[in-house]
């Protein structure tokens, strides 16, 4: 685990990945970013909370999956409260820093337990812009832990660069509390109108479905993922970092025999490639703008 105070000097996109307190998918997420061409730094959350690591030194902040604080009071609840109320030596909370981080145009990704944390923190969907919780994630309708592969359909209206050019994908889910609940009709209407329900569970033909097990948890709107209104904050229950290569899939051998030319990249890798490419393009555009301003 890299405990350095700042990322090494590099022109690559910098991804910060938090771990600790029961988070356990940090290595897979780091592998995803490295395969996508970024530098990935894993730090214990305490390093950030104590002011030894600044999220502002990075381009994209990541909350991986796991079971933070054992999920004893509900998935993500304790960790979200720690981020909302725990002050660093400068008297700031991580939520204060997250507000600034997002205002500066940077990106946040939360997967599974990380998605739950973003919802409990109010970063998703953040319709009111005040970082207050507006939806929740609760126990699966099946009343059981679900560990299975699912297919997801991408909402064509989504604004997030994480999903650019993706129509559908297959990834695994591993959760006991993944059912999105939208508490009122007004919130539901706005989520739909703005395309914030960026991922929905679907069948093999790409048709949205409500039935179990295609929808493994009974989520409202069959929703597997949300973004904020700007598309900078993205959270999802399934695990794209668990499908980086064809050989992660349990059916890879049959698929390879049936189609020897099948791509060897897993469906989940494209999300990480997308955000790395987007940040690189942003940087290039900023350099061109500065060069033009200087030359004029």
Automatic annotation (TrEMBL):
Gene Ontology BP annotations: purine nucleotide biosynthetic process
Pfam families linked to this entry: GATase_5
A GO cellular-component term linked to this record: cytoplasm
MF term (GO), any: phosphoribosylformylglycinamidine synthase activity
InterPro entries: Class_I_gatase-like
SMART domains to which the protein is assigned, alphabetical: GATase_5
Top-level lineage group: Bacteria
PANTHER family reported for this sequence: PHOSPHORIBOSYLFORMYLGLYCINAMIDINE SYNTHASE
Protein name per its UniProtKB record: Phosphoribosylformylglycinamidine synthase subunit PurQ
Species annotation: Hymenobacter jejuensis
């Amino acid at each position: 685990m890299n405990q350095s105070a700042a990322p090494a000097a590099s022109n690559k996109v910098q991804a910060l990945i938090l771990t600790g307190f029961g988070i356990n998918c940090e290595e897979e997420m780091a592998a995803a970013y490295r395969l996508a061409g970024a530098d990935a730094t894993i730090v214990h959350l305490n390093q950030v909370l104590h002011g030894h690591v600044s999220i502002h030194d990075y381009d994209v902040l990541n909350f991986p999956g796991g079971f933070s604080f054992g999920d004893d009071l509900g998935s993500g609840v304790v960790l979200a409260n720690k981020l909302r109320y725990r002050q660093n030596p400068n008297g700031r909370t991580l939520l204060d820093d997250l507000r600034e981080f997002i205002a500066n145009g940077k990106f946040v990704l939360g997967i599974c337990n990380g998605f739950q944390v973003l919802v409990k923190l109010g970063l998703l969907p953040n319709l009111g812009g005040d970082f207050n919780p507006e939806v929740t994630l609760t126990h699966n309708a099946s009343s059981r832990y679900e560990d299975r592969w699912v297919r997801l359909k991408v909402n064509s209206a989504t604004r997030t660069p994480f999903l650019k050019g993706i129509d559908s994908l297959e990834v695994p889910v591993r959760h006991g509390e993944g059912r999105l609940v939208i508490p009122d009709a007004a919130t539901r209407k706005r989520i739909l109108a703005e395309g914030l329900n960026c991922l929905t569970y679907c069948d093999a033909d790409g048709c949205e479905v409500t039935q179990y097990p295609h929808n493994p948890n009974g989520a409202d709107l069959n929703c597997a993922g949300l973004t904020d209104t700007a598309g900078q904050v993205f959270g999802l229950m399934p695990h794209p970092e668990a499908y980086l290569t064809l050989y992660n899939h349990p059916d890879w051998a049959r698929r390879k025999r049936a189609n020897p030319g099948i791509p060897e990249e897993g469906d989940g890798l494209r999300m990480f490639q997308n955000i790395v490419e987007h940040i690189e393009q942003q940087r290039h555009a900023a350099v061109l703008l500065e060069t033009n301003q200087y030359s004029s």
